[in-house]
Specification:
The chain is an alpha+beta fold. It folds into two domains: about 70 residues, 3-Layer(aba) Sandwich (GIY-YIG endonuclease); about 30 residues, no CATH class. A three-stranded antiparallel β-sheet has the order 2-1-3, sandwiched between helices. A hairpin with a 4-residue loop joins β1 and β2. α3 runs antiparallel to α4. The longest helix is centred in the C-terminal third of the chain and has 14 residues. It is globular. It starts with a strand and ends in a 9-residue tail after the last helix.
Length: about 110
């Protein structure tokens, strides 16, 4: 069975990078060794792997990666740290401040 990994890297400058791969060790080494000079992580090395989630369905992995790519760095760090309470609070804060949110709606 083939596995896919959605991962979050913490870069040396504090930025986060989210990606997907079918070979976590190889992909992390590519980031760390700076094989691509135009890559987001190239000038932000060293990087640290702070989160990875394994999937056996590539479509689920792609969906999850796209979802968390839109998250704030705070929310990604909460996920990486396993702080589900903070993750929930950050999700609620964003929803409550979203332009479509109106507590007066019936």
């Amino acid at each position: 069975m083939k596995f896919y990994y959605v991962y979050i890297l913490l870069c040396a400058d504090g930025h986060t990078y989210t990606g997907i791969t079918d070979d976590m060790a190889r992909r992390f080494a590519e980031h760390q060794n700076g094989l691509n000079k135009t890559a987001f992580t190239y000038r932000r090395r060293p990087v640290k792997l702070i989160f990875q989630q394994e999937f056996n369905d590539v479509l689920q992995a792609i969906y999850f990666e796209k979802k968390i790519k839109r998250w704030s760095a705070q929310k990604k760090l909460a996920l990486a740290n396993g702080n589900l309470d903070l993750l929930q609070i950050l999700a609620e804060c964003r929803n409550a401040s979203h332009y479509k949110y109106s507590p007066d709606q019936d």
